Every structure is written in structure tokens, then in C-alpha cells.
Protein 1
Amino acid sequence: MTIEDNDVRDVLRRVTDDLAGPPTLLDDVRRGGRRRLRRRRAVLAAVCAAVLAVPVGGAIHFVDSGTGGVAAEVASPLFDAPTRGDLAGDEEYLRQVRQAWRQRAEGMESEGGRPDAGSEPHVVWAGNTPAGPAAYVAQRVTVTRPGSDRGNHRLIGYAGFVEPAASGPRVMTMRGMNEGNDGNSAAVLLGPRRDVLVVLDAGYPVEFSPTFRYAPDGRIERIFQRVTFRDGAAVLPVPPQRDRVTVALVGVPLNTATAVEITNTDDILFPDGKNSPEPRRVTYTLPDAERVWGDDPAARVDNTAHEALAAAYIDVGRPHTDGESPLLVVYGATPDGRRLLLQTVQHGDDPARAIVLLARGDAPLQPAVSGFVDWRAPLPVRLRLPDGQGVLVVAEGAALSYRIGAGRWHDAGSGAALLPADATQVRVATASGTATVRIDS
């Protein structure tokens, strides 16, 4: 079959379907740095060269191989276009790259097909970098079987970066290229300090940011600049990315959905090959919350809440590991009848941030107030809501009470409470003692 415009649209639709968050929002937000979710988000066709190269640039034909598989005939610039880069004419280096690729492929086992003697590895790009010569290679599979994903897409090839090593070119992770929605990285970090970023030119604009910072209210701030490609790629100096990842590569428009995956961030964030432990989840449902949320508040938190957080509080660059702080969630109702959701977000070892989102009726939740969480303080969370709707406080496991001025103390429950706007002090009582915190500012 020849892929026409309608097929391209269908591929893009299938790809972006996976970007919609689950109804609970919470796992997508907190586990944003975890390996399995990073890979799912990274399949967006608008930012993955390997996905775009097949449907946009060529045709795919499948023929019964007679062995239970299917012979794949793929025409694509990723496989067929001339090698680009300032080492494209260095036949000795290209020979070493192909040899390294073949050796890696010989020892690789995978379901549904693999690079084999029926096709040749194609060096898509080869160039000099401050870290040494590097390359990007793609190779067809000659026999493939239906994949296990919901679109039953077929594996059509493998692609991956080749980095410099003391013994010569070394093939990094070889990723499968599916007919539909499984893509490959379009960028890689090179060098012992991982301070050289190589970005492939896939024919669409890409923005770059070397690092980010937090505003006083916990919002993430980045400065982006357009990536300038030359002869198939861009080579950018970046701050060392040895134990955390601060760089961001994003397509247009700039948002978490268009983030370009950097192929070896897993090696940086998970050097032992293991995911970080699941964060401990702490959830409170305040009195009277069912008045606006119903019996199951989590079921009403849809993807619009994730999008609202992603717009300012979730790093557009990704990826990050999970922090050690608890995942805190509070459901409640404001005095004027709005839904209230508090959600914490933490990237790696950075301080956790608490964001309160509000919505009236079935309107989308929107951030209303935010700040940093100090888990060592007697009262880790203290956020004053707008429009005189009160002060939201959280201290896990503590008995809470409040008073107004020099008045009597009022019981506020345990763990979390929405206090009156004119409350001036909170008493936080735990097994280790009692502390009084002023909240009149």
C-alpha cells in the first residue's frame, strides 16, 4: 500500500492518542520521569525523526514471506537518502560504523524481526563533534510480524546512534521502528560528561533550552532558542548531564507533548538499570468534598487538569527521576462551591511544589495558587486561596486546630484542612510534640 495524506493523519492520530493522560492525572504527573512513561510520550510523530521518515517520505509494501512472517519492502529517506554530515565522505569511518552495527545486530534477539543479512545498514548521518565522531544508522528488517500494540503495527526497521569509544565506534541502543506509532530518538548526549548534544534534522523546527529554574511560586521557567541545523544535524554544547538531565528539546508548539526524546537519558538517570521506587502516596478528602466532587473525586480528575499543570509546573523538557517526597493529593470544596484539588509535583531531588487547582461545576480545573513544600517544617503546606476562600494547610499525621486572633482554638481534623480566611494561627500536634504556626500573612 502507498501511504497517502489520510494515512499520515491516521498515524498522527494514533500516535497522539497515547498522549492523553489517564483520568486520575496523578500517575502521569508524578511518574513523568519514569522510564516507561517517557518512552510512551516520546512516540509523538511530530518530534521523532524515525516515525516521520516512513509515512511522509516513502511507501511501505508487505508481502507474505511463506514462513508465517511478512516481507517488508520499505522506501524511505531514512533508509535510502545519501549520508549527510561532514564525515559522509570518510569511507573508512563509515565502514567502521557499519561493521560495529553488524556486530551488534548479530548478537541481538528481538521478537518480530531484526536487522539481518537481507538488508544493509544505512548511515543516515555521520559527523565530527567535540566528543569525537558520531553517527546515526537505520536498517530495514526483511521479515517482520504483526506487533502487539493496538494498531497491530509492523516492525519495519531499527535505528540508533553510534558514539565514539576507545575501541572505535560503539552502537548505542538499537530501537525498533514500527509502521505506525513507535518511534526513535532524534537526539543523543555524547562525551564522558554528556555535555555534547546531537540533534538530527527531521525537517521540522526544534527549540532548545540548556537548563531551567523555578519561580518563587514554583512555576518552571525556561528560555528557548531555535536549533540551527547544518548538513543533517545540529551539535550543541550543553551543561554536563552526568546525574540529572536539564536540557530540553521541544518541537513547535512548545509543550510536554512535543518534547523530543534524547536517546540515552535512561543511562544517566538510571545508571544501575533500575527505576526509582514508587513515591508514597498520601491522599486526603476534606469534609464536604462530596458536595462538589461526588463519591469518587479521582474519577472526575480528567486530562485537562494534567494539561493545566503541564503548562507551568511540569518541565516541558523531561525527563526527571522521582523525588523521595510523598505524592500528596487533597480533594475539597471551597466555601463558594468550587472543586478544589491540591497536587504536588517534584522533579528529582528538587523541592516539591504544591499546586491548588479550582473549578466551578464541570469547568476545567485551573491553577489558582502554588508554592514550595517544606517537608521538614511543622506545617509543610500552607497556601492562601484567592477570593477569601480560606487557607489550605497540610501536615501528614498531625492533629490540626486553628484560632482567629486571641480567640479559642477550633478542631480542624487530621492531616489536612481548609481553614477560614481570617484564621491567624494553626496548632500542629504530633507524637513528637506540638508547634504553633502563624498564618496571618
Protein 2
Amino acid sequence: MRIPRRAVTRPAAAWSALAALLLSACSAGGGTRSQEALPKNWDELRAAARGQTVNLFMYGGDDGANSYIDEEVAPAAKRRGISVKRVPVADTQDAVQKVLGDKRAGRNSGGAVDLVWVNGENFRTGKQAGLWLCGYTGLMPNQKYVDDEDPTITQDFGTPVDDCETPWSRAQFAFVHDAAEVPEPPRTMRQLTDWIAENPGRFTYPAPPDFTGSAFVRQVLQASARGNSRVPARYSRKAYDRAAPALWKELKKLSPKLWRKGATYPKDESALNDLFADGEVDMAMTYGPAQVPRLVAKGKFPASTRVFVPEEGTLGNTSYLAVPENAAHREAALVLSDLMLSPRLQYAKARPNGWGAYSVLDRERLPGVWRKKFAAIKTPETVLPFDELSRNAVPELSGEWVAPLDAGWKRHVLGGR
């Protein structure tokens, strides 16, 4: 699966401006609701949700996610009297800005955005500004299947969730290789960088601020810091100044060994996938390895495609569903969030012949019939089981790291050629 990626991420200055606007909207009284309080009884809330349409804003570039919503979620919601309108966006921040626009216009109820597929800096910025409806997840029947002490669930890129969003999917950064060309993939990040140096022109990565390219930079950051001390999850200028020099040194050293000698980079993961599919590079990368079997089945990737992760682990995170406080259809958005957390829909999401995205449910908490169903899911040979993918998983850094690292890459790597 993919996390709600940012196809075009704004630079640090844009993020700062957005945060300032959000906070000023709140201080101007944007956090005061004019709607009646939500029912505190789940049956009453579900009854109030009937007949409502949920405007679900989500990244529109993942065909698997889109099909899952249209073919699995929407019919299940319809049976409960709720309609789902999937609203595709190129960047999750577009949905956050729309909520902000409503609030700046004084629209404290009746907002256009009912539900957002979100995580990372988008969630953090909205939380700082009080955009999200909080304190509701305790009502949800399916929350009992979630491990509420799991830090990968309770922390969203270093930001405490604090009952302001519902977990939906897990993601794990991974590398993709063509086993016909690279029978034995590198086993560690150090071996990967050695392989790149020994095979000039056969590797590249998307240019930050593309989400996948940014994730690769953070993966190298964590690997380059392993010999000294782990990079702290919370951003500070001091931590950046201590960790970043080794990162830029490593990436600058790799640059002339990349595809087209690092003179240009793929604009996004899709462009990198095209290079891999055309045989121009021997590896690709993704935060959604569950999509690989589908790409092989469609003939996009060769049948010899396989997924691998370094032994020391890769970045992992959870993505969520958040309801804006001023949503027009809050009741239906909450009911839909709970429905998307149900064992039935989490199982449908996890099936390899479905979307193939990873469940957030704790199997030990599931009824026996669902434990058996999940246990019976067969992982295609093109990808690794999630337990193997997530072994030694490295928690994501705070979203505050993203913009400085993206800007640093542009200055030190792209501009330092």
C-alpha cells in the first residue's frame, strides 16, 4: 500500500506560511463550533449518520486504494445507509488547505471535507491548529481490535495521536529488484551503497520533495547515523546539524554513480517505476510494497521482480483517517471510519488479490474466525510477508524533519553537483 503521499510537497517556507495561517484562524475563534454536540451513544450516532454522504478526501494516484474504496468500502457503507464520495487530491495538504479555507471563511460547520486519509506533517499541522475532531474513537466498536499501547499506532510521525484520528493502514519502506538481473540483492544499507558504486547507472531515486524520494533520504539518514547515535525523532536544529553532514556526504558520493550520472532524477515513484519496467535501472523503491504483485500481474513489472529490505530494517509508519471538526457530515464520517477499521474491511484490504495493504488490527484481539482468515492470507512470492518486511522496523521521524531535509537535499546534493 501507499501512505497518503504528497505528489508535490510544498517547500519549508510554504509549510511555515500554512501553519501560521492555520494558527491565526484558530486564535481568531475558528475553533468554536456552532453545531450541536455529537451523540455519545454509538447507536444514536449511527442512526444520525443514515442518509448522509461522506466526502472522503484522499490521494488519488493509487489505483489499488481507489478500487478498494469504490468496490469494497462504498458498497459496505451503502448497506448502512451511508454514501461515499471519493474526492481525489494530488497532495493531502490540498485537503488540509480546504479545511483551513472553510474555517477562515467562518464556516465552523457544514465544511466540504468530511474525512481525510492523512498522516505525518499534514496531521501534525492540522492538530496544532485544532482542525481535527478529537475524543471520539472511544465510541467506536472496532477500536477494541487495535493495540492502544502500540507506539506505531499512538504516534503519527512522532506526533501523539491523542484520539484525533483513526488508524487505517500500515506501510513499510522497501526496495524492489529484478532477480533476473540482481539474483542476490544487498543485505544491508552499506551493501546497497557499495552495489550502487559498483554498478554505475543502474540505480536512482525520485527527487525530493517527492514522498518516496524523501523517504529514501530519511532511510539513508538513519543508516548513516547508526554508527554514532540514532537520529532523534523530534526535530531540532542541533540534531539536524549533527546528523545531516554525514547524509549529504553519502548522497553526494553516490550521485555520479546514479542513472544519468545524477544529472537528473525521476520526478516521482511512478517515473522510477517506468525506468525499472523499461530495464533502465535494476531497482526501485516504495512505501507500498503490497502493490508490487499487482504491478507484476498487470505486466508492468517483470515476473522476476522481488521485494527486499535491509537487515537493519527500514522506515515504517501507520496512516489514519481524520474527521475535520467542521465537517458537514461528522456522524457518517465517524461511522465510516469505524467501518473501515472492521475486521471484514481490513481483511478485504489485506488480500493480495485486493488492494494488498497491511492491516492495523492486532490479530490476538480478533475473534477466532477472523484470526484464521488473516492467517490464511498467502503472500505472493514477489513480495515479503509483512512480518519480514517490518522486522527491525525504524519508526518515522517527526514530520518537522521533512522540509529541512528536502531543502538540504536540494542545496547540498542537487545544487552541489
Protein 3
Amino acid sequence: MAKLTTKKVLLSSIISLVFTGGLSACDSKNTDKTNTNSTSAKAETVRIAIGTQDTTINCATGGLLIRELDLLDKYLPKDGEYKNVKYDIQWKNFTSGAPLTSEMVADRLDIGAMADFPAVNNLVAFQKAGKQSLFLNPLSGSTTGSGNAIVVPTESKVNSIAELKGQTISVPFASTAHGLLLRVAKEQGWELDKDIKIIAQAPEVAGPALKSNKIAAHADFVPFGELFAYQGIARKIYDGSQANAPTFHGSIVTKDYAEKHPEVIKAYLQATIEADQLLQKEPEKYSQLIADKTGIPAEVVYLFHGPLGLQTRDLTWKPEYRQATQTAVDTLKILGKNDGKIDVNQFISEQYIKDAFSASKFDYTKSLANYGKSPLIAKDALTGEPIQTFKHVTQIWVKGEKQVRSYETAEHAFQDLKKIQQAGQQTRVVYSQDFQSDIKLLSNLAWFATNQTGQIQAFLLKDDATKFAQTHSGKVYDFKAVQQLVK
């Protein structure tokens, strides 16, 4: 099997690239080989050329993990009509969906991973070329929209969307984040170019613009809202879940290829299922692997892929993801990217993922009905008791420890945090769950409020914390101050 070893993109490099340039795609060194795409009894070669988006970390189970763990070969058919077939597996990494789509249309790739908006552009590009692509399955997403985010410079005085009226906001054009920003503007009653100015900026350009305060805000997709916040150059003031607009990334295939090699597609999707299972069972281990290969810090990867994460790894075609695809069609029509005459039900092909679930002995119908996040099954690291409720879960990743410590309450976590600090240990990150939206937060950037009994709640937005405190006779604290409440 031809296997690409992707170049590591060190964290220092990604920060440098965010500030000075672009994240470079690391293409496979393999060259395309003549491929008859025949599965006769003769010894022939079947190409499997897969385009990944490694730094878009919620594509990991459809690309990076399959590649790095050699999962695809495990499921490829090797008997019957495939007995004498040789597989030419090629991997190419991209930083966005547009160049990946170009490679697919040019028949240099067979399978790719991208978000709902780029996926619709993929469909349109194929149609213009007289071809067709199929949307195989979601990989990771949020039925409420979490993952897309709007951030402001760290020192900005802005704490809410309403305060951005009259300002300039940048966004990667025609992306899922662009769709979110347009939706937010509409909800605020803003008129484009009058009440708000939107400019096109890729994340690698927006990073230094935020740091130098050249823009008031930036809207972006996974993982940049959280990455910029983790790096200390921005604060998240709006999470996509507030707009309740579903978003996801998924796998796409050339229709002709899928119809010619359905067993290969089933094998690819079975590998995706296993990658998903592995990530759920050992999120710290595989978050670190993803970090090692992409330069996205493991702490940010875990924020998405760990238990109770920002997004849910979900391989099923929930109605919300179908709607997200239709929303992408409608929004991109407004932006002049298509004529709106697109039947998403012909684009979405559910049977392939159903077949893969069956072959892997998983119940697709049961998974389709499951809206839960990746579950947290753990004991409170302070009390040793099983965690039963999850509204106030707080987690601490201690430097040098393989597993994240979990606590049922913020109070338990902050008590243990004092002990950790007193022992001279360092923490990599502390996570909280937003009391209102239940999204996972970086605690050092969160706001906290108490109720009349002194119980601590975490919030993404200061306004939400303030409203809660006023309603429940409590007070508002930042991360440093709230720790002092616990003795």
C-alpha cells in the first residue's frame, strides 16, 4: 500500500503561518498511475485517491486517522472479483475545500472531505463538468451550529454581537462561517455595507489582523475560533449554536467511482467508523496524534473531540444535516455561487454509509436517533465517585498526565486545582461546560456566576453570566477571581 507520511506542522509553525502567511497543503509524493478501474480476474490496479483536510480537525475520522493508523487496508476486499486486485492508495492534504474539489473534478482524487458549503460548491463544479459527486456521510458537526464562531481581538471592549454594528468583520468567503455571519446580520436587522462591512479573509490572514486590531471581528469555521482564543490573540463572543444553524463536515465521492467500486467505498466508510470508535475510546491519545500531525494543539482538538465536546462526531444523515446542505445551497445562491436549482436529496447518498454500518455490525437506525454528545464516563477526580450529572462538569488536563481529570462540579475542580498548583504541577488547560448552551469552553476565557447558594455556573458570554447573577442573587467572576471562592 502506498502510504503518505504527512509532514508535521509544528505549533510554532502554525502560529507563524497564521501571523505571516498560509497553511501549506502537504500533497502526496505519489503520482497518479494509469488506472483501468476494472475489477476483472486479471491482476489490475484500483486507485483510491483520497483528499484530506488535516487542519480542519473534524475531518480527522475521514482522513488523517485512517491514513496514520493504516485502517483502510484492513477493510479493502481481497477475494472474489478483487482477489487479484492491487490497490494504489494515494493521500493528498489540503487546507480548504476548493482546491480539493478542483482535484476531484480533474479526476486526480476519488474521495474527499469538506464542510457543507464547500460540498455544495463541489456538486456545482461537477455538474458544470458534466459529472456528478455524491455526499456519502457526515463526519463531525453540530445540529445546533457549534463549531463556527465569531471572535474579537483579545483586548477589544466588545462583548456582544450588537456592539459590532458599524464595524468591519472578516470571514472566509463562501464558507460555513460566511453563512453564519449573514444569518447573524439578518437577525440583528443590519443592512450589509451600511450597518456592517464584511470583507473576505482566510484564517491565516485574519490571525495577524486580529492581533494588530486591523479588524473589529472575524468569523471562522473549525477550529480557528477556538485556536485563536487558545493562542491568546482573540476572544470568542459568539458561538454558532446561538444561531441554531446546523453545520457539519463530511465525505464526498465521485459518483462514477462509487458505482464502479461500491466495495471500496464500503471499506473506506468502515475505516471511518473504526476511526470514530477509537477517538471516542481514547480521546486524549488521538487528540495528541492529530496535534502531532497538524500543529493544532491537542488541547484544542480535545475541545472538539473529547467527551461533551463542542461538536459531535456523527456519521448519520440526520434531518438537520440535510437541512444544513439545503441552507448552503440557498445561501450560496444569494452569493451568486449557484442558481439554486439543486436537489440535495440526489446529492446525498445514504445507502453507502448504511451498508458500512451493517458490515461493521452497528445499528444505523439507532445511531440516527442518537443526538447525544460523545459521552463522559468517568469518576470525579476529587471524590472518586462516578459522575452522574454533566451540567457543571469541569475538566483539568495536567501537564505530564495522559488522561484529562474530570469533575462533576466546578467547585470540585477548583479545589483540586489548588492542590495541583501547590504540588508544583502545571496544567495544560481547564475546560468548563456553558450552563446555558452546554458547549465546552476554555475556562480561562469563560465567565462565571454564582446563585443564591453560591453554586458556580460557567458561561461563554459575560452578558449571560450577568443576567444569571442578577436573577439568582449572585455575582459575576472571571476565571482567576472565581477560583478564590473555593477553599
Protein 4
Amino acid sequence: MITQLCLDRPLDAASLAAVAQGAPLTLGKAARERIADGRALVEAIIAQGIPAYGVNTGVGALVDRAVEPALQRRLSRQLIMSHACGIGAPLPEAEVRAIIAAQANNHAHGRSGVRIETVKALLALLAHRIVPEVPAGGSAGYLSHMAHIGLVLIGEGHAHMGGERVSGAEALRRAGLEPLVLEAKEGLSLLNGAPCATGLGALALARADRAITSADGVAALSIEALGWREDAFAQDVLALRKSPGIAATGAALRAWLAGSSRLGAGVRLQDALSLRAVPQVHGAVRDALAHVRTMVDVELASVTDNPVVLGTPDAPRAASEAHAVAAGLALALDALTTATAHLGMMSERRLDRLVNPMVSGLPAFLAAEAGVSSGYMIAQYAAAALVAENRRLAAPASLDGGITSALQEDYLSHQTAAALKALGVVGHVEQILGIELAAATEAHDIAIPAHERAPATARLHAHVRATIAPYADDRPMSDLMADAAALVRAGITGV
């Protein structure tokens, strides 16, 4: 059962990811009061003629151009139109929902000055499963993705609803909603802040969390097939390096391998690092993800709009700042990308040991009839290609820089690009782990009688075999790889 979430308190990374997957999100009394108070400040700023960026002025390098009250509603609408500059294929539904939820969360702090009706319109997109068509590319910072969402709110652009592509106006009509008429500041507030990177980052983090948990089980399956020495995973040995992630990984591996008859089955005094260093590498990934989780939670607890509204209706303030520059989030998401890529590197190296007869003691490439059959030979090539692509993608987006808006915006942290790269790398790692999972299951069929397996790995083997039949070059390997990646993406715990 999906629990309903409320914006009376800020979302965290886990709850935002839950909304992305379909959990309902509502406004409570406290959030409504904060939003109403913020809107009252905007109205007071307008009434008192206080200069405020994006309220009664242009934006970017046009900050010094005054916008009279009669044109402020038009400014809000035209900002949405002019900033809808996305390029490329549209984002999937979960990613779009994550961005919408993060923006609603941002407005619910009450410092943006939008109306309650505007936040309710965002939540209505989620409730009615209206998915604005949001091109993935074309954003140097954080503007274009939200602009495409804003288009649908005002009855423009396109959306997907029930698997069908329709106009924004038609999507609203089918849901019984009216196009939103934006008031002063609302166009800018719909565009601004760090909700795009925050939403996408929360999703990348949720998938990376599942990937690291899955990686422990997949590694255990491979380690058991190849034989291992238990002292490398012993609790007292691992405790010598101070890391919560190492301790958690060691405990997971001991649980996966407990009761196996393959303990010490190898003849090596010391195992290869791709086997022996699983606690150290998986543990480092866990520690890195803990930091990323903290940074995403900080973003959700923070106001990232510009300007923010403060004070009282008698003495309102519109403070121009740079909270939308989410450099901390960009750095964290670059770290998530690199950390998760290490999972793929380790997985591909274990996979190579499974299929390489020089070190595995198993049939070459796990092929049923080596020579006429190639088995997992080219699947390992595919994994190696994904590792190489991850290496290219792991270059830090936060260092890309760039100058926009006639020198007014002369620093860019590229947090949205960092989030998109993180999602791409996590997707590749899910595929690499899936290939290893399928190969390790095949190796168990060859090398380990069912009664000799650890109880936990035996359950995992059965879980895989319920979906994926043994491979004998009898069907396209790509189909098998896709099925195995889906198992990893769903999460492998103790099955």
C-alpha cells in the first residue's frame, strides 16, 4: 500500500522517490498557511512598488528593465514560453514526477510567493498522472525542464496521459482541470530553484541504493562459484578499517555465504582483489551514498528560489540571492556517479573471472558446448563496454562551467547535468550487475550441487531461475541480459 505524503514538512530523498513512483502528495494546513503568507508578501511588494527581481523587473541580464503592473501577469506567462528550450528525447514518467514533487516541496516552504492554486496545480498533475513532455537535454542550469512542466499548467505544450501523447490543454480537460493563469512572480518561481536536479538526484540515489544492495548478493553468488577464503570477510579483520560501509558490506556478505560448503574451496592463499576487496569497494560506495543522501535531504529542507520573500506585509522584502546555484548538490551527484561506476568496474572484473577458464576452473565462457557455443563470451564484452562508457560519463559535470545571460550568470554548477549523468551510470551498472548475476547463476549450475550452496545464495539462484532459464546459445543474449538487469533494478535483498 502506498502511503500518502504531506508537504506540511519537507520531503526527504526517500519520500520524494516514493512520489516519483506513484505515492500521493498533498498540502496540509501548515503548508497552506506558509504559502498564503508568502503570497501576501508578494502582493505587498507589488502594491508598495518595491523593486523585486522577476516580479516587477526582467530576468537575467534584463534585471534593470522595469515591468509595470499591467504587464506582470504577461511576464510570468512569457517566461514559461521563452524558457521552454529543452532538447532531445523526453524524460520518463518517474523523472518528471520527481521534478514536479521537488518543485511543490520548494514552494511549500512559503518563501517563493506563489499562490496556493499554483502549488495545487502542480500536485494535480501528479494526482491525475499527467506527465508533461520534458526534453531531457538543453539545460545549462535548472530552467528548461520546469518550463516544459509549466507549459502544461497553462494549457500549452504536450503531455502523456494513459500512454497517449496529447496537448497540454487536452490533458487538463481530460482531468477536469482549467489552465492556470499565472500572476506576478509565478512564472519565475515555476522555473527557478534546484527542483530538477533534486528530483532526479533523489531517483538516482534510490536506484543506487538498490544497486549496492543487489551488488552484495550478486558478488556473493560469484564468490561462491569461484571459491573463497573467509578471513577476508571476517568481522574482526574488517573492523580494522573504520568505515560504516565496510562493516555493513561485510555483514551482508557473511549472511549471503553462511552455510556454504565452498568455504576455502579455492587453492589460493589470497584471492584476487575483485573478490577479496568487495567489502572495501562496496563499503566505500555505501559511505559515498550516505553523503549524497544528506545533500539531497538538505536541498529538500532548503529554499532554492530566487528571489525569496521575507518580512511582513507592512515591511516586505524580496531578497535576491543565489540559492538556486546548488553547487553542493552538483558535487554530491558527481560523487554518486563515480561511486556507482566503481560497482560496475568490480562487477565486470568478477564476471571476467567467471567466464575465463584460465582462472575460473569452469568451462570456457560457461558455454554448454565450447566452440559451437560462445556462451557468455560477448556478454562480457558488453559489460566491458558499459564500464568504459561509465568512465567517460564520470567526468565531473560540476566543473563544466559556462557563461550565460550576457555575463549576468557567469558561473554554472551544472547540477541537472550531474543528476542526468548519475541516472545514466546507475542504469549501466544495473545492466552490468545483471550480466554477472546471470553468469554466476549459470556457474552455480555447473560447479555447485544445490545441497552445497549457502541457503541465501540457493534462494537467489532459484529466484533467478524463476525468470531466466539456463543459457545454451538458444536465444538472443540481449533478452537474457534485459531480464537480469530488471531483477537487479527491482532489488535483490535476501529473496
